[in-house]
């Protein structure tokens, strides 16, 4: 299928490579398409502006920084109408050393704010509880990770679960937590990251339910 990814960083490039390898037609949305295309480190894909990328696909992945995602996606409300928006971002205040600090949306979540701001768009949260390398290589860790799925629309979640299968996730490692409100739980997991890295070093990680 046509899939658009907003954000051309580590997550965007990783998901683009894995999904392109499965035969999906990928469009990457950049703030500056010419500059973004010249700096792109991923596979051969189409490059577009953020709005043109959203218009190009029925399913759009938000892989931009979580602290700027809400106003950025609100500005794309019209092209996002009728689309599935898979949000993989984490919205935190940044500490001086660039590590995630407190939650930007305490007692709520970015995903809930996105769903409220974009009522004609079906928002699904997933893949935000692991380092980017694991998103497309779930068998790369010493124990089997879990990928969580949150969203209000069953069909949108089915589409995302199909993409997770394409990324290598066995159905038994996919845990549907229910409505979009459940994203506040998975988004809060980001608070563990600086402490995990301090305790164990900068190694690939994900969460699992055992
Ligand atoms: N890195 C991880 O392991 C990981 C794991 C789980 C979740 N996440 C989440 O996934 C998202 C992306 O992470 P990342 O590590 O790929 O980040 P990154 O390497 O910093 O890349 C983010 C990309 O988003 C675009 N961007 C930056 N600022 C933007 C803005 N204000 N508006 C629109 N686009 C903007 C940039 O692309 P252009 O310059 O081409 O526009 C940039 O390449 C974040 O929300 C992060 O919390 C990351």
Task: Give an overview of the whole structure.
With 210 residues, the protein is α/β, with parallel strands linked by helices. The protein has a single domain, classed as NAD(P)-binding Rossmann-like Domain (Rossmann fold), CATH 3.40.50. The protein has ten helices and ten strands. It has helices at 10-21, 33-39, 50-56, 66-74, 77-80, 110-117, 132-135, 154-166, 183-188, 193-200, and strands at 2-6, 25-30, 46-49, 59-62, 84-87, 92-94, 100-103, 122-126, 147-151, 174-178. The protein has an eight-stranded mixed beta sheet, with helices on both faces. Strands 6-7 form a two-stranded antiparallel sheet. α4 runs parallel beside α6 (110-117). The radius of gyration is 16 Å and the shape is globular. The termini are far apart.
């Amino acid at each position: 299928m046509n899939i658009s990814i907003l954000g051309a960083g580590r997550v965007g490039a990783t998901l683009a490579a894995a999904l392109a390898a499965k035969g999906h037609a990928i469009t990457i949305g950049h703030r500056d398409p010419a500059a973004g295309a010249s700096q792109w480190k991923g596979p051969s894909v189409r490059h577009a502006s953020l709005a043109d990328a959203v218009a190009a696909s029925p399913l759009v992945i938000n892989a931009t920084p979580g602290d700027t995602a809400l106003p950025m996606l609100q500005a794309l409300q019209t092209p996002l109408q009728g689309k599935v928006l898979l949000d993989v971002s984490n919205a935190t205040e940044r500490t001086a050393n660039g590590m995630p600090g407190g939650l930007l949306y305490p007692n709520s979540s970015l995903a809930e704010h996105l769903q409220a701001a974009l009522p004609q768009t079906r928002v699904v949260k997933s893949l935000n509880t692991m380092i980017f390398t694991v998103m497309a290589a779930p068998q790369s860790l010493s124990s089997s990770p879990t990928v969580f799925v949150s969203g209000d629309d069953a069909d949108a979640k089915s589409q995302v679960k199909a993409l997770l299968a394409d990324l290598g996730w066995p159905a038994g490692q996919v845990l549907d937590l229910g409505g979009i409100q459940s994203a506040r739980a998975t988004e809060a997991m980001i608070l563990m990251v600086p402490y995990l890295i301090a305790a164990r070093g900068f190694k690939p990680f994900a969460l699992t339910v055992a």
